[in-house]
Amino acid sequence: MMSFMTDEASDAGSIPGQSRLESYLFSCELSSEVPFYTFQADEDEDLEHFLELRTVCLGEGAKDEYNVIEVTAMNYQGKKTSVPVASLHISRLPMVSLGGFELMAPVTLRLKSGTGPVTVSGMHLVATENDEESDMSDDEDELEDELEPIKPAKKKQKL
Questions:
Q1: How far apart are CA 60 and CA 38, in angstroms?
Q2: Whole-angstrom distance, CA of residue 49 vs CA of residue 104
Q3: Which residues pair with residue 92 across a beta bridge?
Q4: How far apart are CA 111 and CA 32, in angstroms?
Q5: Is the Cβ–Cβ distance between 125 and 22 less than 8 Å?
Q6: CB within 8 Å of 30: residues ≥ 6 apart
Q7: Cβ(107)–Cβ(36) under 8 Å?
Q8: Against a cut of 0.85, is the pTM above it?
Q9: Distances from the Cα of 62 to the Cα of 5, 28, 84, 110, angstroms
């Protein structure tokens, strides 16, 4: 299991060996004209990209029909697996909250049935390994330079 730190927490001083997590808003619209979207990762080896799905909702102009949204991603064995995650209907269930359904890239979102429009939203998470021990030691050195040694107070002699 990978541990994550948010940007705010990592500003105070990163811990070597932990990951730094950056998050960005994600959204795509699926319809009969554009029935699928593939979320890809950059080729950078030091980064891991995740898609955290939060909501799926019907858009303006959706017809009185069922719209089924399917997600295709890798399972733990490295095989592609497709799973329906939402079945929406304008008069029965126009929106569903997935609560943070996290998948590692690549991920394909597909409008399996219906004509949409369906908006899928969530967070694009980018994890980077924090191996920079030198940054932490530099900050400690600067702090030590700013502090002067404390000298004991001189005692007053009684006359």
A1: 23
A2: 6
A3: none
A4: 8
A5: yes
A6: 36, 37, 69, 109, 110, 111, 116, 117, 118, 119, 120
A7: no
A8: no
A9: 39, 16, 19, 16
CA–CA distance, 11 with 9 (Å, rounded to integer) = 6
User: What are the tens digits of pLDDT across the range 86-142?
Assistant: 999 999 999 999 988 999 999 999 999 999 999 999 999 998 876 654 455 455 555
Which DSSP string corresponds to the chain? ---EE-HHHHHT-PPTTSEEEEEEEEEEEE-SSS-EEEE---S-TTEEEEEEEEEEEE-TT--SSEEEEEEEEE-TTS-EEEEEEEEEETTTBSEEEEEEEEEESPEEEEEEES---EEEEEEEEEEEE---HHHHHHHHHHHHHHPPPPPPPPPPPP-
| Other CB atoms within 10 Å distance of the CB of residue 47 | 15
Both structure tokens of 36? 């699928």
pLDDT tens, residue by residue, 40-91: 987 767 788 999 999 999 999 999 999 999 999 999 899 999 999 999 999 9
Backbone angles phi, psi at 153, to 5 degrees: -70, 145
